[in-house]
TrEMBL record:
Pfam families linked: FMO-like
Keyword hit for Cell cycle: no
Record keywords: FAD, Flavoprotein, NADP, Oxidoreductase
Protein name (Swiss-Prot/TrEMBL): Uncharacterized protein
Keyword Cytoplasm: no
Domain of life: Eukaryota
Source organism: Knufia peltigerae
Example of a GO MF term: N,N-dimethylaniline monooxygenase activity
InterPro entries assigned: FAD-binding_Monooxygenases, FAD/NAD-bd_sf, Flavin_mOase, Flavin_mOase-like
Amino acid sequence: VGIPQEQVYDVLIIGAGLSGLCSLYHIRQRFPSWRVKLLEAGSDVGGTWYWNRYPGARFDCESVSYGFSWDKDLLQEWHWKEEFSPQPETLKYIQRVAERNDLRKDIQFDTRIRSAYWDESNHTWQFIDESGREYKTTFFVSCLGFLSTPTLPNIPGIGTFQGEKFHTSHWPKEFDLSRDFAGKRIGVIGTGATAIQAITEIAKEPSIKSLHVFQRTANWSAPLRNSEVTPETMEKYKAEYESIFERCASTPMCFLHQADPRKTADVPEEERLAFWESLYARPGFAKWLGAFSDTYTDRTANKLYSDFMANKIRERVHDPAVAEKLIPKNHGFGTRRVPLESGYFESYNRPNVHLVDIREIPIEAVNAQGILTSDGKQYDLDVLIFATGFNAITGAFSAIEWSAKDGRPLLGSSDTEKGQRAVWVDHRPQTFLGITAPAMPNMFMVLGPHQPFGNATRSIEHAAQVVSDLLQYCKDNNYNYVEPTPEAVEQWTEHVVECGKGSLSNEVDSWMTGINTNVSGKQTRSVARYAGSALEYRRRCEASKLAGWKGLQFA
Ligand code: NA7
């Protein structure tokens, strides 16, 4: 009521990253007469690759395993210049996807959704953006991204710093490292995958004055071993795309790497070391995902492999005390997502690069000049970079105020102001297949909680396919209402928790286990991603579909 007809849709998609573009493509192909719109907060397509422009941002997975398999002409046209594509090239690829498929005509940029309201009386969602503009839709597809809401560290005085400061995902546009950081004293807080890429590039820049890295938790990291893709190699890849994607589909996380089936203890020590050396010498995630099959479930096996990796760090860092600080002590290799690096450890061999262990001596405050640690030491800085990660997985939903079915908030603690229980209490997701959620009728998620992540494009393509199959079912049966049954939600959520059992990763604090010390409600571990294999996940989606979408109720 009161919403102009042109703002009333059959399907609204939110987010123009790979998830949103893939969903838009499939939905438009399948339902050409439907009114479909994609709303995006940024000024162009790209999502993660639009926002994260920091120096060193690139894939850790093979470029040729990342493109959309359905745009076959583009696969033949596109020449990936590097085996592990840097951000500017990846963004160009995504822009080319939008251009070739004429996707921009259905996208409204610079539109950030502020609130969402479920109207039970006519089975529609109503959205309001930051400018107060309203949109009405029957179905909506959440393509908000699982690492898209940056978090700043909860350190006192953070707003008082007088120099330049920014989060890695809001890096200044038109930035030039040698021009903009020349002569500057730079500080980086955080040592996750982002920081490891950025620090390596900043440290290499000869014109910087100094770089201080404030490390709370050391991270395991291993060589990326990137290289150029020659025209001859690219021709070979183009001919092999089908088998490349088939191989991805056959592995647990849809990357090109498969674990070695042997168990660590069954392999004699000499052979074991030679195998690990060969993994270490290979490009990409081979050294993470190609390890012995028990590496991430058996503590002893994990310890042996971690010791091997620790020695690699010792070999590469000149100062033994710094090397020891860079070796993780409270989690084993590969139990967190392994950042890949191109000279990260050698950064600390430079005289102007300093590691500050803030686990040992915490930051007391940020002040106008820089950072003060609890031993009274002041680090004066010109630039302060927050490589402090994201309110992951459920986090993107927290930027929107939700009024779900019966007026329930989506996120919150159990006792909300209205006395109503949030759908996802303390960021603990409840879903069915990771695609639908209780009390959120007609919402479908691509890369939402309880979905397998891994090679993101591969997961996205599958989820977007499931969503469009579901929409087809609604269309064919004239349904304008779909919601998972409480039993299906309970069983699926239990299944997801069950899948995580026995994995050492689930015993470690990280964004994958729902921990973010900067976000209230994210202090205890939860299972927010599908930790079973992508194969099993796809099998379960297919089983529901074949049984007439068992687990969902329609009207
Ligand atoms: P991550 O992996 O979440 O890393 C964030 C880093 O910031 C990590 O080292 C954190 O230390 C550190 N951090 C966060 N808050 C603080 C505070 N308050 N004080 C000090 N240090 C802090 O994010 P990334 O952006 O690197 O990577 C995210 C994913 O993007 C990555 O896995 C890839 O898949 C792509 P902590 O470990 O919590 O002690």
